[in-house]
Amino acid sequence: MLIRCGYDIRFETDEPTAMMALLSIHPSRHHDLQTPQRLMADPDVPLYQFEDGFGNVATRLTIPRGGVTLSCDFTIADSGELDRRAPAGPQMPVEDLPDAVMPFLLGSRYCETDRLMDVAWSNFGYISDARERVEAIVHFVHNHIEFGYHHARSDKTAWNAYQERRGVCRDFAHLAVTLCRCMNIPARYCTGYLGDIGIPPVDAPMDFSAWFDVYVAGDWFTYDARHNQPRIGRILMARGRDATDVALTTAFGRTTLARFDVHTDEVNQID
Amino acid sequence: MLIRCGYDIRFETDEPTAMMALLSIHPSRHHDLQTPQRLMADPDVPLYQFEDGFGNVATRLTIPRGGVTLSCDFTIADSGELDRRAPAGPQMPVEDLPDAVMPFLLGSRYCETDRLMDVAWSNFGYISDARERVEAIVHFVHNHIEFGYHHARSDKTAWNAYQERRGVCRDFAHLAVTLCRCMNIPARYCTGYLGDIGIPPVDAPMDFSAWFDVYVAGDWFTYDARHNQPRIGRILMARGRDATDVALTTAFGRTTLARFDVHTDEVNQID
Amino acid sequence: MLIRCGYDIRFETDEPTAMMALLSIHPSRHHDLQTPQRLMADPDVPLYQFEDGFGNVATRLTIPRGGVTLSCDFTIADSGELDRRAPAGPQMPVEDLPDAVMPFLLGSRYCETDRLMDVAWSNFGYISDARERVEAIVHFVHNHIEFGYHHARSDKTAWNAYQERRGVCRDFAHLAVTLCRCMNIPARYCTGYLGDIGIPPVDAPMDFSAWFDVYVAGDWFTYDARHNQPRIGRILMARGRDATDVALTTAFGRTTLARFDVHTDEVNQID
Amino acid sequence: MLIRCGYDIRFETDEPTAMMALLSIHPSRHHDLQTPQRLMADPDVPLYQFEDGFGNVATRLTIPRGGVTLSCDFTIADSGELDRRAPAGPQMPVEDLPDAVMPFLLGSRYCETDRLMDVAWSNFGYISDARERVEAIVHFVHNHIEFGYHHARSDKTAWNAYQERRGVCRDFAHLAVTLCRCMNIPARYCTGYLGDIGIPPVDAPMDFSAWFDVYVAGDWFTYDARHNQPRIGRILMARGRDATDVALTTAFGRTTLARFDVHTDEVNQID
């Protein structure tokens, strides 16, 4: 399957403002590129990429006085397969987990494992199978939180989302991630493109999406508490401990988002 | 100067429990070791070290049923000099900061930069010199929080400490780190040994200490909002975004701390 | 299966001499440790470990005037299974190889890919199946080189071994690694313990062993051109581009090896 | 000072051929970019960047049947200052060197430290000052090798260059690097742009250049055995153990270089 992805985003600012952006696809998808993924800026300011501590491709630039438009458009190959479910079977003991996944058991800015420990164990402590536990958490979060774009708040944490019971895809992911970590299942927060592929048309503007991965039986598996069903065509951009690590853009100063268009569509051929 | 450091810590548990510990000195101090730093366990369970994502030496072990005593004792050379103050001069623009320090501008579990942004800018926005700004933050935090061991709480954040105005060295460090980050000064949380060297005797049991580093003028400088004065003889163990990353021990199950002795003393010779 | 491994090695020197050693097991085997792997030095000089650029555990120490004895003894669990053969099937195109394996296609100190390119293609160019190609290389090297301890020479390269047709396990590995790389199959050089387990008794003093890994069908597989047969009980210590990267010890000055005992035996229980 | 750099290189091939290229500036120079450094390909095939194990930016692409032209053109700021000389003073003992520089003491494909050890010690063993030793090596290599483009050979090592006494800038760098390593001075091989800035005009087509860094007194310093004098305006692209690690392009199949233009000129303004 071929998917055409990209964005057209404009920031405005009164003063030159430093920005860090995670607007590139994840290196694990580089081999799937069918056309170059070339980040364009207008005006054509210098920008450069570096690999952050989580293996994501970050971009740094300074938004010039007035503003800048960042855009990108590329075609990528995808398996066209649904997210794989984690295998059934007993959960890995913590002592068998690889060193590199250990940070994904700890708390983070939006994932207060310390505060949700009791909620997690009282709800999911009785389940011993790893897949069942993860899927029970996904199901719980999906039903516990009411989705609504107007519920978005930049400082909302998993604990807040649990209590307020309202949120956006980011909050679904944070709560599910936190509950998995409480149960000693490593979990990481993911962002990327997720088009309306293999599902009925959705009447909402396209946006980037947030989901999460769990580490079960020696591998990472993707789950989505917002949609609560396997999906086709996720194009991963970045992953980290939570939305702090993988914010699409972090501006170090005052900026206004003046345009935000994202596209992710199945296509038949490379234009 | 020679400093003899070490600890003797006992955990008890009913079930074998996985543990991750940051009880080794930081690699940047390895060259100063005058005797081996050998972590002993009783009973002598297998344990191993790995380097975490922040360059710290982490230890993994499984506490056996009953419990385990971890101990260490070594002698290390130290310059005997006071913490260096950051140089005076204008603050580095964010765009000039190296990529590797950027994560230390972001929020983290105990450092809610989003919530303290207004506090930071209204108090320190008028200062342009980087050293003055950092030292004003240290001074402010030192005076804002009342120290008391009974104020320790494992889920207390910088925001909580700011509001409750009570805490321990960890809370002083979290609040100062958060305020620095809000002002676009990269800051990282540190733990280690800090003996009563070069100061009047202190009538309190020795403990590990928490302080923080700021990135100013192209280098990291150590500050301590708890003590609000330069000190001699810090032996760094671990540094990270906040106490989550550098917890002395993280147990993945129920354990009881049955003994906790730390020593850090100036000595005249290697025994 | 339980295997008891260790060594007792003595270096003598007239002057304090810096040393770097790769005498620890590889982190990928840490989870298998049944007893601590504690490196002892006599006299008890300070030494410390760090992770090198290939993920191996390196030790640094200064050999004191007179000399030092390094020793270690531990018990480790092993699957007891033979080395897995690479799967049959077409070789991965270079463009599909992960970025991280690319260095293992390049030349290195003892693996002159540039000089052996023609030898490789004329001998193995006709084979398209990856497993067949690797196994043909292993077979060729096994038969091309005559084994003999007295053929060891510290500056012998793959090219030298190819021409001289004599060598030790290190030379078998270097030549096989080089030929694989010439054929665009990533290959890395490995060292570790390899006891006489599952084979008839061997009448030679135990030593560390060298073998190599190839990257086929998305994973690494172990081969051994010296023995030309799958073996049981390899305990990996270090891997890299060639013997330069994983030298057991590198002394930065004049030292004499005064004792060298290695043990690797199957045992029934932990002592 | 502003420098305009870039290249226009064409490879031709009969079959699609995987390529790895180190044609981007080094991340340490990213902050100096005044215009974007955008690698263009014609035809516009997918290509992507990754950070290699030495911190360089590598590019991977597949050259399509027929061929591809790679080009780049950007303006970068430079201090305009001459290479800094290493400070005078005693050489750092190996035991005080940071772990991360240790690999730059070892042999590598084109730097046979084992073969040149005697040459190094007999010529430079009497010098104890680190700067004097490095500069004596640079001077020696500069005078020992006769420069000539027709002396270039892709498999020529430091040992070969020492014996043949002919070579190109790569060979000067390899021999100097090897001799420094033999003397326990960490040395790394560098490639990049070096225009005819601050020197009389040179009547030769512009090419990329090779030089090297030594680690003295806790920092890296740049030397150039080809020119044997400090220069202005080096724009680093990549550094590693030797030319293997930082080859401008490595093709995994047969390709022909059909065009090779490099430019590096001081300019007064950004176009």
Q: Can you describe this structure?
A:
Four copies of one chain form a homotetramer. Chain A has two domains: 99 residues, Immunoglobulin-like (Sandwich); 146 residues, C8orf32 fold, CATH 3.10.620.30. Chain A is globular. The model of chain A has no long low-confidence stretch (mean pLDDT 96). With 271 residues, the first copy, chain A, is of the alpha+beta class. In chain A, a hairpin with a 2-residue loop joins strand 10 and strand 11. The first copy, chain A, has a four-stranded antiparallel β-sheet with strand order 3-6-1-14, with no helix packed on it.
- Poorly predicted spans of chain A: none
Sheet of most strands of chain A: 4 strands, antiparallel
Into which percentage range does the β-strand content of chain A fall?
Answer: 25-35%
Q: What percentage of residues of chain A falls in helices of 4 or more residues?
A: 10-25%
CATH class of the largest domain in chain A: Alpha Beta
Instruction: Give the strand order of the largest sheet of chain A, numbering strands 1, 2, ... along the chain.
Output: 3-6-1-14
Radius of gyration of chain A, in angstroms, nearest whole number: 19 Å
Order of helices and strands of chain A: EEEEEEHHEHEHEEEEEE
**What spatial form of chain A do the alpha-carbon principal axes imply?**
globular
- Under the CATH scheme, the architecture of the largest domain in chain A is Roll
In the CATH hierarchy, the third-tier topology of the largest domain in chain A is known as C8orf32 fold
First-residue to last-residue Cα separation of chain A: 14 Å
Biggest contact: A-B, 30 and 30 residues
Mean pLDDT of chain A: 96
